[in-house]
Amino acid sequence: MSCRFFDGFAFYCYLWSGNCYILLMKVMKKQSDIYPKDWMAVHPYAVPQPSDRYFVELARELHAACILPDLPEPFRKKLCLYVAAYLEDMVSGLGLWQSFVGEHDRLYGKPLPFYRVADDYLRDEVNEEDVRFIVWNTWQKALYPHDYINPEDVRIEEQAAAFYRILERAYEEAPENPSLAGFFDGYADEKDADRKLTWLFGHTYLTEPSMQPYAGQVTPSDRFIVPVGPLALFLHEWIELLAGEGNDVWRRLEGLCPANPEVPAAVREKSREMYRRFVEGTGGRRIVYLDGYEALRRFLVEVMRWPDDDDHTLPQMRAHRNFVMMAEPEKGLLLAKDICESIADDGNRMYNHEVAEKEAFRLLTEETLCPPDLLAYCIRNGLLPDAVFPDGKGRQTVGQNADFIARHALLYYYRGD
Fold it and tell me: Over 80: is that where the pLDDT of 14 sits?
């Protein structure tokens, strides 16, 4: 008896059995096949299009070239469907990928996070750097226990190269899908608009990965206030990119562009009063770092002039080591706990380089650990210089892409109000 390994599975076959090869091929096909229904699941229509057969076969070819044994099989299949859908987008004129890289360029001055693009990079053609990002995005967002994936992991580079060799050839022969050309230019009626927005929100190759944890939990109205996709864009922002700024058809759709909630005048004035007290008591600083609960209590009583009782001095915070407090004119006070060691601010005596190397990255990726206004302030002012990926690498990469990492990981917890 001999043993052969394929895709993490061991097959034991008698060498003298004439049926061995047939049996092996059947098992392999059962483990790796991608079906038309899988392709349709990442598309906005129920009636198959003539081009679908080609892209299903392409996804199968990509799956045969998938060399990521650490990625569970369901996500390996998803990855191959997404890469095939990326090619379909490029040849059919959907505009999803161009919208993403265009907005990333507007925000950060480069088309992609993490990866330096080659001199021959063309936004309207397939690129190996694009494929690297899709591999990373799919793997990072996959719903199984794993550490944060370093986007510079050599396995991502190798997988993208293997996929790109297939896409280079496919780009020259792949059929267009006419139903996707100008898909978001407008809509026939509210039902058609709902169908298109539902797909864009959580089922395209770029937005589905970010929405997997929330599938089935988001109501139709919530879709308009929950940011999605790699850049955590709201639906109205996606539509503006896809349909063009001059297209006002979508603006007439009720709910798509929600108005900012009206804050009562009394609440606004209270927030401004707290801000005035804060900056007066700190000599103009908007942020203070407080070592332990007693320092927090004294600040609330002596600087903010709150009553010295349990209803006002946050006794539930007694167990925590330290606190960051930030004042905003329109929001009042923001409070974060147990993160002072990670913030390299001149006014923070508790900053600890060794601790920050292990903990600072968490501020960019863990929901509710750091208030979004404080996190944005830290990123904007370079106060997280020690943040590295969990594997201990990538200090420069994290520093150059910190805002993107926060958007990508935190979504509403970074961009929500």
Answer: no
What predicted TM-score, i.e. pTM, was given to this entire model? 0.90
In a domain, 175, yes or no: yes
On whether residue 155 sits in a domain, the answer given is yes
- Reported residue count of the chain is 417
Chain centre distance of CA 306: 40
User: How far apart, in Å, do the first and last CA atoms of the chain sit?
Assistant: 64
Q: What is the pLDDT of residues 149-158, one digit of tens each?
A: 999 999 999 9
Distance CA 214, CA 35 (A): 25
Q: How far apart are CA 380 and CA 358, in angstroms?
A: 21
Convert the pLDDT of each residue in 222-271 to its tens digit. Answer: 899 999 999 999 999 999 999 987 778 998 999 998 888 888 999 999 99
Q: Count the neighbouring beta carbons within 10 Å of the beta carbon of residue 99.
A: 23
Query: Which amino acid type is present at position 300?
Result: L
321: tokens are 């080591």
Q: What confidence tens digit (pLDDT) does each residue in 180-230 have? A: 999 999 999 999 999 999 999 999 999 999 999 987 888 888 899 999 999
Same domain (yes/no): 227, 287 = no
Q: Residue 217: what pLDDT? A: 87
Q: Are 98 and 184 in contact (CB under 8 A)?
A: no
Please report which residue ranges of 93-232 form alpha helices under DSSP H. 96-108, 128-141, 154-173, 190-202, 208-211
276 shares its domain with 187: no
Do both 300 and 273 map to the same domain?
yes
Average pLDDT rounded to a whole number, residues 133-148: 97
Q: What is the pLDDT of residue 220?
A: 85
Distance CA 402, CA 138 (A): 19
CA–CA distance, 211 with 200 (Å, rounded to integer) = 11
Number of domains in the chain: 2
With beta carbons less than 8 A apart as the criterion, state whether 254 and 262 touch.
Answer: no
Count how many Cα atoms sit within 13 Å of the Cα of residue 360 in the half-sphere of its side chain.
28
Is 249 within 8 Å of 187 (Cβ atoms)?
yes
| CA 165/CA 319 separation, integer angstroms | 56
Integer angstrom CA distances of residue 264 from 255, 267, 268, 269, 270? 22, 5, 6, 9, 10
Q: Has residue 42 been placed in a domain?
A: no
Give the residue numbers spanning the domain of 372. 269-415
User: Where among 213, 238, 259 does a domain terminate?
Assistant: 259
Average pLDDT over residues 268-279: 94
Q: Residue 189, CB half-sphere, CA atoms under 13 Å: how many?
A: 1
